[in-house]
Structures are given as structure tokens and as C-alpha cells.
Amino acid sequence: MSERIEKLRQAAFANYHKPSPELNYLNCAAYLETAGECLHELRRAKMDAIVLDRYSIEIEPGDLLPGRFSRNFE
Questions:
Q1: Which of 23, 57, 68, 70 is the most exposed place for a label (fewest CB within 10 A)?
Q2: Alpha carbons 56 and 12: distance in angstroms, whole number
Q3: Rounded to 5 degrees, what angle do the CA atoms 37, 38, 39 make?
């Protein structure tokens, strides 16, 4: 395994279980914004759209697949 791949692998495992305060905040905001929806499936789809539209994206040097979600809350 190359050195680059090993660094990316270690970084991925190091950040795997860290909670994302930004994601928690966006989920709560989306839950409140979709309070009037009567169908669960439609509400869930709208919540997902809200979260994905507003979630920060972080690109670091050396990433093989740029655009992974950020864990930083700004």
C-alpha cells in the first residue's frame, strides 16, 4: 500500500466516529422546517434535501475523491 493511501486510510478511520455538530444542527433545523408535512416519506426527503443543500464541504490536498463532508462547524 502506498504512503499516500495509508495516510488517507488513517485519517478516515481517525475521523469516523467523531460526531458532527453541524450535521446535528442541520437535522434539527430541517426537522423544524418540515413540521407541517403529513407524509413521513415526503418529510424525510425534504429534510435530506435541506441538509445536503446547507452542509459544508471540505477538500484537502491529497484526497482521491474530493468533496467529502466537513466535520467543522462554522
A1: 57
A2: 17
A3: 100
CB 73 within 8 A of CB 21: yes
Rg from Cα positions in the chain? 16
Do 36 and 49 touch, CB atoms closer than 8 A?
no
Q: What is the DSSP string of 3-68?
A: HHHHHHHHHHHHHTT---HHHHHHHHHHHHHTTT---HHHHHHHHHHHHHHH--B---TT-SS--P
CA distance 26 to 51: 6
Read off the pLDDT of residues 10-66 as tens digits, 9 standing for 90 and up: 877 776 666 678 888 999 999 999 999 999 999 999 999 999 999 887 777 777 777
